[in-house]
Design a protein that fits this description.
This protein is of the alpha+beta class and 379 residues long. The chain has nine helices and 17 strands. It is elongated and about 95 Å long. InterPro entries: BaiN-like, BaiN-like_dom_sf, FAD/NAD-bd_sf, RsdA/BaiN/AoA(So)-like_dom, RsdA/BaiN/AoA(So)_Rossmann.
Length: 379
């Protein structure tokens, strides 16, 4: 898969040289050089070996302190306006006391994530905002029998999402990957990817629809039926609940779920199970429907789709096309990726480009002022 195809919003605009500057390899090298061991999953997702996000946070905080970066907490930027000479007038407030600080800035970089505050400031500076909506969330499923499967994982499934009448007007929403059953529904990389690519369509459908899951995507339907019939003929005296074709790679609790869902008595002998029941089981394995009743119940969305349109940004510098010396980076832009480090990479690449651009411009101005200063003193 092309790297940018991991970005439901942004995959077209970022196809150029954006990730050539401080791209994934540079990011991984940087963290490795600073003591964070990383691992790459089979589907390309990258995580710290510790499986703990604190490894990343602690590394960044340590490096910020080491290089003298000043971090001010407990404050918010409430207003940014343009003044003469292309500079900015920034108003900063403290959260806990009646306090205002006024700062004159040559450059402003807004990297406020999905905070409403950042969008409001961008609007103050004449930018537009694509309405933010949740992305990367789990699905609430209406199926009481799933409770018995909570915690069960499937290494590889194919999942398709159908959203009623919207399905006729939108691209096909399908993903392949691991699936996790939770006590409220379904999760795992395959669901998170579906939620990301379908984020804005799911919003329109009020987060309801039908999820069709193929639990054996590498086995053709005809072969599924053949394996079931072979198993029936081979193990005629065994109870249906106690055995099933090994080729399916299922756990026993899921096999029990399939039987219960089809109303098949698990104590029945394989010799007695009718072929039409085997057909039904095969269909469930290949096209198992689940009713999506909403997002995960704990508001567990990870990122937001929407934000500043990329058409209003020069990606080679991350500078606003509307306001000179105004820059954006990260999730405030209308860019969002699937799970596995892609959203961080967008933020780090954009932040690197913006920071480098600001640094180079400030350095040039400083050199000019330094060159002018001695002659002024001589006069």
């Amino acid at each position: 898969m092309v790297f940018v195809e991991n970005y439901p919003r942004g995959h077209k605009e970022l196809r150029g040289s954006f990730f050539d500057v401080h791209g994934p390899a540079d990011t991984m090298s940087w963290f490795s050089d600073h003591g964070v061991e990383l691992k790459i999953e089979d589907d390309g997702r990258v995580f710290p070996v510790s499986n703990n996000s604190c490894s990343i946070i602690d590394c960044l905080l340590h490096e910020a302190r080491r290089t003298g970066v000043q971090m001010q907490v407990g404050k918010i930027v409430s207003n940014v306006s343009c003044i003469c000479d292309g500079k900015f007038y920034v108003i900063i407030e403290k959260r806990t006391i009646d306090f205002l600080e006024h700062v004159e800035a040559d450059y402003v970089l807004i990297a406020s994530g999905s905070s409403r505050q950042g969008y409001d400031i961008a609007i103050q500076l004449d930018h537009s905002v694509v309405e933010p909506m949740p992305s990367l969330f789990t699905f609430k499923i209406e199926d009481t029998h799933l409770l018995d499967l909570s915690g069960v994982t499937f290494p590889k499934v194919k999942a398709k999402l159908k959203l009623g009448s919207l399905s006729k007007t939108i691209p096909q929403l399908a993903q392949i990957g691991p699936l996790l059953v939770t006590h409220w529904g379904l999760s795992g990389p395959v669901i998170l990817r579906l939620s990301a690519w379908g984020a804005r369509y799911l919003f329109k459908s009020n987060y309801t629809g039908t999820l069709i899951v193929d639990f054996v995507p590498d086995i053709h339907m005809d072969d599924v039926k053949r394996f079931l019939i072979q198993h029936k003929n081979k193990l005629v005296k065994q109870k249906v609940i106690n055995s099933y074709p090994a080729q399916f790679g299922l756990v026993k609790s899921f096999w029990r779920y399939l039987l219960e869902r089809e109303g098949i008595d698990g104590d029945m002998l394989w010799a007695s199970i009718p072929n039409n029941a085997l057909e039904s089981i095969a269909l469930l394995l290949k096209q198992c429907p689940f009713i999506v009743a909403g997002k995960g119940q704990f508001k567990d969305e990870f990122v937001t789709s929407g934000g500043i349109p990329l058409s209003e940004i020069t990606l080679s510098t991350m500078e606003s096309r509307i306001r000179p010396n105004l820059f954006f980076a990260g999730e405030i832009l209308n860019v969002d990726g699937v799970t596995g480090g892609f959203n961080f990479q967008n933020a780090w690449t954009g932040g690197y480009i913006a920071g480098t651009t600001i640094g180079e411009r400030a350095s040039i101005i400083h050199k000019r002022e330094t060159m002018i200063s001695p002659s002024s003193q001589e006069i």
